[in-house]
């Protein structure tokens, strides 16, 4: 696989781009959004409240369902792999959050044409 494609499919690219977007937001250089750091806690609380009040039946394509497909508990397998590769608990947590974040973004707008993502394609724990 081409190294550029491998990079784009990796979690490192997701983190780097997310940090770059945050940097641009902090510099007020986003075209379509405004960043309000004083409202971040409220935003986090809002997301938590949505998660707590939603049921699986009302959100059938949650990231956790994407990561557990075909009877394969992919997060558990990935954690074992990452641990055997020397990733500490903090890095394992970061990697899981990255995967869930990407999963939610990919699921957004999937509608009734949803197909579970094959996580094996991602270059994990770079």
UniProtKB/TrEMBL annotation:
PANTHER family: PROTEIN URG3, PTHR31687. This is Uncharacterized protein. It comes from Aspergillus pseudoviridinutans. The lineage of its organism: Eukaryota, Fungi, Dikarya, Ascomycota, Pezizomycotina.
């Amino acid at each position: 696989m081409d190294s550029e494609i491998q990079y784009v499919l990796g979690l490192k690219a997701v983190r780097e781009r997310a940090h770059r977007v945050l940097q641009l937001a902090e510099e007020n250089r986003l075209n379509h959004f405004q960043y309000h750091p004083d409202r971040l806690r409220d935003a986090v609380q809002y997301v938590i409240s949505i998660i707590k009040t939603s049921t699986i039946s009302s959100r059938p394509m949650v990231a956790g369902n994407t990561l557990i497909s075909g009877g394969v508990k992919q997060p558990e397998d990935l954690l074992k792999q990452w641990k055997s590769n020397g990733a500490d608990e903090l890095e394992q947590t970061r990697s899981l959050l990255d995967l869930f974040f990407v999963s939610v973004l990919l699921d957004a707008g999937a509608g009734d044409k949803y197909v579970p993502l094959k996580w094996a394609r991602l270059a994990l724990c770079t």
